[in-house]
Design goal:
Elements (H helix, E strand, L loop, with lengths): L5 H8 L2 E5 L6 E9 L3 E2 L6 E2 L5 E12 L2 E12 L5 E8 L2 E4 L8 E3 L2 E6 L6 E2 L7 H11 L7 E2 L4 H4 L7 H13 L8 E3 L5 E4 H21 L6 E4 L12 E2 L6 E3 L6 H10 L4 E5 L3 H10 L8 E4 H4 L6 H10 L10 E5 L2 H11 L2 E5 L18 E3 L5 H15 L7
Parallel strand pairs: 1-10, 2-14, 6-12, 15-18, 15-20, 18-19, 20-21, 21-22
Antiparallel strand pairs: 1-13, 2-5, 3-4, 5-6, 6-7, 7-8, 9-10, 10-11, 16-17
Amino acid sequence: MKLDGAHDLAARLAPQLMLDASEPYRPVAYGYTVFRTAGQSPSSKFLVEPVAAVTVEYAIYYDWDIGHLYDLEHVWVHADEEGRVVRVEASAHGGRRVMDAGNGQAELRDGRPVVYVEAGKHAHWATPELMGEGDRQKLAIACGPAAGIEGVHLGNPFAQRGDYRPSGADHRLARLKMRRDAFVPSHRYLALTEPVQLMPWAELEASIPERVEHELARLRGANGHLRAVFLDCGDTLVDERTEVKAPGTEVVLQGDLIPGAGEMMRALKAAGYCLVLVADGPRQSFVNLLGRHQLWDLFDAHVISEDIGALKPDARMFEAAFSAIGIDRSEAWRCVMVGNNLSRDIKGANALGITSVFMAWSSLRTHEPADSSEHPDYKIGSPEELPALLEQLESLLHYRGPAPFRG
């Protein structure tokens, strides 16, 4: 077989990928580049040096790695003038290794190299037997407890030149998806049988930013994440014992934050949660209190009883919060209300099917529900506990669906 056109050559030498039977992600496309002389790879950091007549570089794109959104791996197939494979190299965790299944040669099937793909991470191996016990243990961690650790991948040319710009929420939702995709590698390999697009690297390169944006849009449009976190102020963010009111009024001039409240708010904002203040009292009180501590502007909306003409647990307060962020009552189950008052914050949230979280930091108000309508779904003792709780709630959200209203 004499060497012929680039596409035909790339199709004939394309590696046969062997995927772990538990693999959740399939390759999207192969972008090929043909080298007849040494040159810099257009899709990786490596120099490609043909060891025979020609080398075909395959940039293999996956939408997902178990650690991040976006994954680009590589296989280099060196062939002689007759199109016979003489050497195969492949990427592995940022490096490049020779695929040696014995006698310095890769396993071949119908003249094509066979490459084994590490579960979840997509590093390449010449044979499964080369993966030692230490490698398997690291992989088990990566595919299990460490799933989603990076969010959206930023260490690639597309992100670095601004072809896509993920928000804090995008990173959070990507991590959420991958945690849900966590699995145990089987170390049993099956040949990839579904067709994978083969195209010149330039075509694949042009499509990757759009693919990343498509995946981000899918994440944002799914219903398996929290739509909003509603927060009270007094003894939820601000220590009511330290509040100072303007003489003869109910307007609070200043007050100290509960320890950890500022850090908690900034962490939630960085994670991209939609934050809504849902509080009873004069608007100016909250402008004074939260503005003084640079928290007012961290909220996406402010729903205040003085403006609404009602106090929690009145449903109008929560309806106004839904409206302020553009959702309706049917999505109450995807919202969380955090507050210190069982008869207002918790009862009001419960009545609409909002997940209720009791902030039990202060002893100014009772911690004992008057009846079942005041029983919180969850209880925390300090602001520092909230981010982890929200992460757990969001991870489980797609299992539960809407809850019945309690009132």
